[in-house]
UniProtKB/TrEMBL annotation:
One of its GO terms (molecular function) is glycolipid transfer activity. InterPro entries: LPS_export_LptA (IPR052037), OstA-like_N (IPR005653). One of its GO terms (biological process) is lipopolysaccharide transport. Residues 23-131 form the Organic solvent tolerance-like N-terminal domain. Keywords: Signal. Residues 1-21 form the signal peptide. One of its GO terms (cellular component) is outer membrane-bounded periplasmic space. This is Organic solvent tolerance protein OstA. The lineage of its organism: Bacteria, Pseudomonadati, Campylobacterota, Epsilonproteobacteria, Campylobacterales.
Amino acid sequence: MVFRTVIFLCLLNLFAFSVQKIEVYAKDFYLDEKNETSVLTGNVEVKKGNDVLNSQKLVIYMKDKQPIKYIATKDAKFKIIMKDKTYHGSGDEFIYNVAKDTYEINGNAKITEMQTKKELIGDKIIVDRKNMTYRVVSKDKKPAKFVFEVKE
């Protein structure tokens, strides 16, 4: 009876605290265990659930062997799904903060909501997935741009 209880509790913990798998692909991979960083180059692809990040270079920062931040550069593009909506984005630099669940796109930042074709364009876009907020920042007196269609 005790054995069954222990097995049940182990299975319960397995399902209650399920870990989402992250898959990373690249042509070249370098790991520095001492500094807890990984550098991936060449056709980099990261998959987490339905979210996908592509770039030519990706640096992963870790703490206690867990990723805390991803910085993608060189042709950074992504696809994320939030609240049943699919977003495609691109920029010069893409930063994902794991703890905050935020995406930051720097330089030539663009996000398109695929279902409605709404677009956000600016020098910097910050997406907060937890709070479902978006911030677009532009510099050099260029305006931030929001493109959408209105039914008449």
